[in-house]
Amino acid sequence: MVNERLGEALRLLGVGPGAVRVYLALLAEGPAPLGAVGDVAGLAGAELAEAYRELVDSGLASAADGEREPAAPVPPGAGLEVLGRRRAAELDASRITVGSAFDSFRRHRLAGYHDPLVEVVTGEAIGLRMRQAWAGARERIRQFDSPPYFPLVGATEDALATLARGVTQQVVYSRASLEHPGHLENAIEPCVEAGEQARVLPSVPVKLLIIDDAYALVALSIRETDVYNTMLVVQPCGLLSALVALFEQSWRSALPLHGRSARPVGLLPADRRLLRLLAAGADDEVIARELGVSRRTLFRRVQVLMARLGATSRFQMALQAQRAGWL
């Protein structure tokens, strides 16, 4: 079973079937004469030489001049790095080739049709399109976040994976986002701590996701029934430029939510969450529910934080917390 998994992993990295068999034999028998390794792998002569040369070229085996020369596997770190980069380059080249082929098809076959600048996506296709957007981002994602939320499993993991790839994420959250049960703790804070640039406004004008400067996803929700079942995909045009300008204006007006770069000594995660909810304008009932405490306990925590910051009111406490980099 282990050998099967290893063989499949090597094949996914582009190692040929013969080379995979020789590598598995090397792990079992090496160091040993190349001919003996070939006997275990079921290869000889030119086939064995070609398969072993592939391993050497991939950085997975030491050089051997003939079947009597000793052969051995080498530490795979550098070789796997080369294989991984080669595979990534091949995937990029394939993506470009497929994209160019489709563009050619569209130019020649669809020349007589109108190429829509706005596409309507509905139902279950929304989740797939959103995941494709996160995975395809190259440099920058800008987002307005507000309920209602589409039930997308793994959304937070997708955002964290995008951050791990070095993609800049700027998100303006509405107060309703912070008040939505569990959203602050389970979705917002993990991304902020991972490096997301987050800010908050009392409300956002629209649910929006701008991928690089290539296109935007705009959600259409029916607030009265809390339904989110239609999304627009906006291609480069005047509307996309207007959405980008709207985001930038809102970003400048929003209150920052700092992450790992501002971690004051002794400030508990619950206290940081309390400050963020206060700054967003949430009332005591919502804050107590999000923290899982009584209103009396909440009042005591607020008093302690006010004392630490030298504030005499909640407004002054929020202002001092922002200046201190606690928000």
Number of strands: 10
The computed structural class is alpha+beta
The helix content, as a percent range, equals 40-55%
User: What would the average pLDDT be, to the nearest integer?
Assistant: 78
**Main beta sheet:** 8 strands, mixed
Strand content: 15-25%
Please give a structural write-up.
This protein is α+β, with helices and mostly antiparallel strands and 327 residues long. The chain is 54% helix and 16% strand. It is built from 14 helices and ten strands. It has helices spanning 2-12, 17-29, 34-41, 45-57, 77-109, 125-136, 155-164, 175-179, 183-193, 238-253, 269-280, 284-291, 295-309, 314-323, and strands spanning 32-33, 70-71, 118-122, 140-145, 168-174, 197-201, 207-211, 215-222, 227-234, 255-257. The protein has an eight-stranded mixed beta sheet, with helices on both faces. A hairpin with a 4-residue loop joins strand 8 and strand 9. Helix 2 (17-29) packs across helix 3 and helix 2 crosses helix 4 (45-57).
Keywords:
alpha+beta, single chain, two-stranded antiparallel ribbon, 16% strand, 327 residues
Q: How would you summarize what this structure contains?
A:
Helix content is 54%, strand content 16%. The chain is α+β, with helices and mostly antiparallel strands and 327 residues long.
Outline the fold blueprint.
Layout: H1 2-12, H2 17-29, E1 32-33, H3 34-41, H4 45-57, E2 70-71, H5 77-109, E3 118-122, H6 125-136, E4 140-145, H7 155-164, E5 168-174, H8 175-179, H9 183-193, E6 197-201, E7 207-211, E8 215-222, E9 227-234, H10 238-253, E10 255-257, H11 269-280, H12 284-291, H13 295-309, H14 314-323
Parallel strand pairs: 4-5, 5-6
Antiparallel strand pairs: 1-2, 3-9, 4-7, 6-10, 7-8, 8-9
Helix pairs in contact: 1-2, 2-3, 2-4, 7-9, 13-14
